[in-house]
Amino acid sequence: MSTLRLGDEAPNFNAQTTEGEINFHQYLGDSWGVLFSHPADYTPVCTTELGATAKLKAEFDQRNVKVMALSVDPLKDHHGWIDDINETQHTDVNFPIIADEDRKIAELYDMIHPNADEKATVRSVFIVGPDKKIKLTLTYPASTGRNFNEILRVIDSLQLTAYNRVATPVNWQQGDDCVILPSITNEVADQEFPKGYTEVKPYLRLTPQPNLD
Ligand code: BEZ
After folding, report:
1. Environment class of 29 (CB within 10 Å of its CB; exposed 0-12, middle 13-18, buried 19+)
2. 37 Cα to the center of ligand 1, angstroms
3. Is the beta carbon of 189 within 6 A of some atom in ligand 1?
4. Percent of the chain with pLDDT over 70
5. Of 69, 73, 75, 141, which sits with the fewest C-beta atoms within 10 Å of its C-beta?
6. How much is the pLDDT for 213?
């Protein structure tokens, strides 16, 4: 398969999951989506990641985001592992985990990097928009747990910049000032950003986050 790039359609698939058989695109519906892979069941880093994701359900729901995890282990193992995750991370796993035993989905999304590991998936993340296009890809090694607060932060930026002609600067967090797109003239910016803006340089104009009261 060729590498998936930003702006490509997220390939659709049918999958066996811990919540039954799921068609990816139907599951997403009009929502945003996060599809993320795990090297293997019953492993320590993955256990903490899945527990943390379950605890963030309210944050994902608030942003209209559906999450789905994947590992290439069988469904039976997933169910036993979920019991361990719930017990050790003090949560209830509340999203589907794909059992991709034949690795079809892992290969479709290029989640196996043979020079890192021939069989297990790396830690991939795909954020998908309501248009089913890929908005972000991340690849972490098996030995490094991902930062799911960063994933939420990126979703906030993606959702903001999808509907407002701004970009988000370094380390931006919800509520911080944004930058006006360089393609917008000052004359247009005067109309489009009624809260005003600070022109630090002609190409660096800061404005309060436009989608907040
Ligand atoms: C883990 O999830 O803990 C893990 C998996 C594969 C290699 C290293 C760590």
Report:
1. exposed
2. 12
3. no
4. 99
5. 141
6. 81
Q: Which of 10, 22, 35, 46 is catalytic?
A: 46
Q: What pLDDT does residue 149 have?
A: 96
110/104 Cα distance (integer angstroms): 10
Q: How far is CA 138 from CA 33, 103, 135, in A?
A: 14, 19, 10
- 178 flagged as catalytic: no
Ordered domains of the chain (ranges, CATH): 14-146 (3.40.30.10), 164-207 (3.30.1020.10)
Q: What is the pLDDT of residue 2?
A: 66
Residues lower than pLDDT 50 in the chain: none
Q: Comparing C-alpha atoms, which of 76, 128, 126 is closest to residue 106? A: 126
pLDDT for 177 equals: 98
